[in-house]
Amino acid sequence: MIPIVSIIGKSNSGKTTLIEKIIPELTRRGYRVATIKHDVHGFDIDEEGKDSWRHRKAGADAVILSSPKQIALVRTVDRDLTIAELRDRFIDDVDIIITEGFKKDIQPKIEVFRKEMHRELLTSKDDDVVAVVSNQPFDMAVPCLDLDDVNGVVDVIEKNFLHHKNENDMTLMVDGKAVPLTPFIKTLIMQTVRGMVSTLKGCQNPKSVKITMGHKSKR
């Protein structure tokens, strides 16, 4: 099951800014990330008059916009889905989901707080808070990190949500970017590499294998 952590906070606390910093650091560490943004006011990605808009107006419950580089799904729902429902229905092949908002959801949370914007925290001791990110210190049972301590925030996420990641899992990085792999491809690559490495002297039972390859351009 893909772990979820919600970045929450009052208006103008810096939630989006923090997420923008978290994602590249998680990616640099080899994790694949999905995000979910909660908008209580609703939204519409369709432009009136466009084909997809016309499909929905004609009564389609789900419309998929597809292109060579990205896809988008517009689907009618009868209620506000929980993060877990969104994950289970629409997201796979990532290591973690970072959400913005969803302050009332039961998922673990990291609160962002700015002393110049607000007087008190949004969360209470009864909420499942794993850290507070703030420019004001708080005496709490969870880590209180500075707004600029991105590595510290990602360390908390990694410790709480990713340290149980399957040791038999693998990540493929190409030119510094994580490449999504299906379970079949992962198994195929792992079995092939482990089989080849195990034939080498002193490598009969490898627990982990790390390969770094460069590309020499032709002159």
Task: Describe the model.
There is one protein chain. With 219 residues, the protein is of the alpha/beta class. It has 2 domains: 4-43 and 82-162, P-loop containing nucleotide triphosphate hydrolases (Rossmann fold, 3-Layer(aba) Sandwich), CATH 3.40.50.300; 166-219, no CATH class. The chain has 5 helices and 10 strands; from the N terminus they run βαβαββαββββαββα. It has helices at 15-28, 51-57, 83-90, 150-162, 183-197; strands at 4-8, 33-37, 62-66, 71-75, 96-100, 109-113, 129-134, 144-145, 172-174, 177-179. The strands form 3 sheets. It has a 6-stranded parallel β-sheet with strand order 2-5-1-6-7-8, sandwiched between helices. A two-stranded antiparallel ribbon has the order 3-4. A hairpin with a 2-residue loop joins β9 (172-174) and β10. The longest helix is centred in the last third of the chain and has 15 residues, at 183-197. The radius of gyration is 21 Å and the shape is flat.
Feature tags:
219 residues; alpha/beta; Rossmann fold; six-stranded parallel sheet; two-stranded antiparallel sheet; 26% helix
Count of discrete structural domains = 2
Total count of strands: 10
CATH architectural grouping of the largest domain? 3-Layer(aba) Sandwich
Q: CATH homologous superfamily name of the largest domain?
A: P-loop containing nucleotide triphosphate hydrolases
Task: Quote the CATH topology of the largest domain.
Answer: Rossmann fold
